[in-house]
Amino acid sequence: MSDLLIIGAGPIGLAAGIEAKRAGLQFLILEAGTICQSLVEYPIGMRFYSPADELAIGGYPFPTPHDEKPTREIALNYYRKVASVENLPVRTYQRVVRIEPQAEGFAVHAVCTLHGAPTTYRTRCVLVCTGVWGKARRLQVEGAELPHVLTRYDEPIRFWRKRVLIVGAGNSAGEAAIRLADADAQVWLAVDQPRLEQCKFRPFILREVQLRVEEKRIMPLTEAHIRRIQPDCVELRCAEGVESLPVDFVLTLIGLEPDRNLLEPLGVPFGDDGKPIHDPDTYETPVRGVFLAGALSRDGFIYIARERVGRAIEAIAQRLRGD
Ligand SMILES: Cc1cc2nc3c(=O)[nH]c(=O)nc-3n(C[C@H](O)[C@H](O)[C@H](O)COP(=O)(O)OP(=O)(O)OC[C@H]3O[C@@H](n4cnc5c(N)ncnc54)[C@H](O)[C@@H]3O)c2cc1C
Questions:
Q1: Ligand 1 atom at shortest distance from the alpha carbon of 94
Q2: Does the pLDDT value for residue 323 go beyond 80?
């Protein structure tokens, strides 16, 4: 039986592993894909908003040429190297499907995502670092499940000369609108606000969107409310009136939320913000022995979560010592 099972090998699962190693714990990290699978699924060539030093983990320097903000590719290379140098015990392609409380500790049931073989791991404590990337919010309208309605994209070139309606008023939607417009897609950007300036875009994203709006490469639809999606068009109401927009793709980038399938059956309650409840100091959930960290908690930025994961590891080490 291990002291600790860390579920998820994203940046914070890896940071947790480094802390656990330094605390002398017997632990394993289980990951449904490869390390940093969530980042692997980010758009190709995407650049982080944070500087490299805010994405660094374990105290390992993260130099970038000319102090540029890292791209997805550079960040993946960095996290891979850190995981290798630390020789972290990560079992990749192991999706945890159930955490079962036992008389002592937990039985953690995983399934291999390559060939389906089940494995059960025994552990005294669990630290859940599964992030929020795995579950994108969907529009609650007819047609939202049609195959041309996407909740993420990889290569903008897929949309070359296609008509794309992007739904969302955050950075991901703004950035997608810019990148798709630059890949010669015909882009409509549907936001719920009366003005683009009222959306949650970072200033540089707003400027780039506005530039393309002036050039008529992005068509904004404000106060937009999607009513129905059909295979060849979207019916929506917006400040400009009621429209039936002919489109090839709908890209809904309206936020991410945690997958509840692991924690809810275990009895971990979720708050009104959709995040699991936990102690803000120790990161322990109301289920004794089950801790969480990273984007799954309320720590959305890596530089915040990487510091606080140390608190969870400290609390776990104390628990194991019986303090
Ligand atoms: C487009 C984009 C840009 C961003 N830019 C920034 C930025 O500039 N600065 C910043 O600080 N943050 C940024 N973020 C947020 C940042 O990426 C996250 O905060 C960070 O990845 C969280 O790390 P994590 O380890 O908690 O979760 P994740 O990185 O999501 O990792 C979770 C891991 O758990 C695995 N997993 C999930 N379920 C299971 C399961 N059942 N069994 C086993 N494994 C499982 C997943 O495969 C994944 O590898 C950005 C996010 C996005 C989407």
A1: 43
A2: no
